[in-house]
Amino acid sequence: MTSYSTSPREQENKIDLQQFRPSQNRSIPNLLSIIRLLLIPLMVYLFLKNRYTWAAVVLILSFATDVADGYIARHFNQITPLGKILDPLADKLTQLIFTVALCFTYRQTIPLVVILGIKELVMLLLGVLLLQGGAEPISARWWGKLATGSFYTAVVIILLGGDHLPDRTIWLLSAVVCVLMLYSLIRYILLFQKRA
Description:
The chain has helices at about 10-15, 30-50, 50-75, 80-105, 110-130, 140-160, 165-195. It is an all-alpha fold. The chain has one domain: CDP-alcohol phosphotransferase transmembrane (TM) domain (Four Helix Bundle (Hemerythrin (Met), subunit A)). α2 runs parallel beside α4 and α6 (about 140-160) runs antiparallel to α7 (about 165-195). The chain is globular, with a radius of gyration of 19 Å.
């Protein structure tokens, strides 16, 4: 019978799933991240029902919980292994799902969907490569937060402006967010190259 043993390197890089148990990850930031995930279907529902103002209100609430959970986690020492996954997951799903829904009404945001999809795919790949190498995933930097903030700002303006917003304004908002996301992606790739 052939026996398989893991090398010290493989054992070191093996992820301990016990650290993600709910009993070890009870915190206010994690609760806020879960709330943010639950707000996604509500936002999409309100948008599809043409209740753009209410969709914008929920989106602002979602962004507020994002800012709050990050602040609480850092300043009150409530950073948890599960939170490191929940927080970015809630952010990415909110942006991706809502942007896809948005582009069916506002075609000008299609480039934003493409750039956002590419950015998150590359970021996911970089995260996997770092984990395989035994390193911690790259935490959020100011340029990533800037891109995220610009996304929420642009989408809220589009939602509140509605049909009264000129096409060129929507194009401009979409273009600004795309540029900031590309800049953010380049900075993260450069940071990854330093850590790899």
